[in-house]
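FAQ: What does the model actually see?

It sees only this:
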Amino acid sequence: MFERPASGESAILVQLDFGAGDYAERLAEFELLAASVGARKKALVQGRRQAPDAATFAGRGKVGEIAVAARAHAAELVIFNHEISAAQQRNLEKALDCRVIDRSALILDIFALRAKSHEGKLQVELAQLQRLSTRLVRGWTHLERQKGGIGLRGPGETQLETDRRLLGKRVALLKERLQQLERQRAVQRRARIKRDLLAVSLVGYTNAGKSTLFNALTKAGSLAADQLFATLDTTSRRLFLAGAGQIVISDTVGFIRDLPHSLVAAFQATLEETASADLLLHVVDSASADRQQQIDAVNKVLIEIGAASVPQILIWNKIDATAAAPGVERDEYAKISRVRLSAMSGEGVDLLRATLAEAAREHASRMPSQADAA
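And it is asked to produce this:
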């Protein structure tokens, strides 16, 4: 677990408008992300650009504005709500005379703070090291010229070569440990398939209410906090449904727009639980004005992890905040496509249980024909 200053680091937040169209929603999310790591926002610097500046991302004039704000507030940190390259980061830190991090580093830092299980910590460390490895190549070129000195001379290696070698060994070790855990999980999945149990995974944008719904269904007592990425570790429970028997339901890590690829790669083993599910319950914060963009962001990650073809039911959560009535909607094939409910108040959760029972019965009815075909 990372140690944080008791009062948090003072930070200047930077978000530029490139005409994407969801600027206000991105800004609100950015401020929540920054607060999640304990950053104390001292100023927000905004602006419009056609495209990022190659050298500093923000351009000379805007960097000057950021520098003035950083000096005025004695800021320890500047956070960009964008992906910036190693070279841009280096140029910015030189111009601003303070640390600079981007959106990916910010999200990685939240994951590092939230990770509780052994596997979760391994996955976060792997993502951090994989990101660092790309920055060793492009960000630390000055170390290529190091020939060693008193106390620094190694066995014919520059410092950069040593760093790369040690980092590579640690990455290989983490991957091996995670592969061992995935092999254990694969054995558990095969046992579940043999029992013909319907496997259901909860997916959704971070803070959509997945863990609250998971607890409402299973009484599992999983952490359900009003914060981003409260859940990093997949939790699975058996759930008995009247008239349908048992199913297995899993709560998973929440997604977010522009989720760093290194995180998706590091959490691949955990996310495979989602890809191997029989049914996805896509939990949506129906009270959010940004809900369609959040749905699109989740579906984008599902494509990336190979789960796009898994059947999906939208769970229209938080109806207590919108005054909508609980209910079930079906598509033109009479399949349930959406369930409106409130995981917090419990309204409509009985409708979801009935939906899951219907899905479990359909799943069970298909199993004999699959066995005969085999």
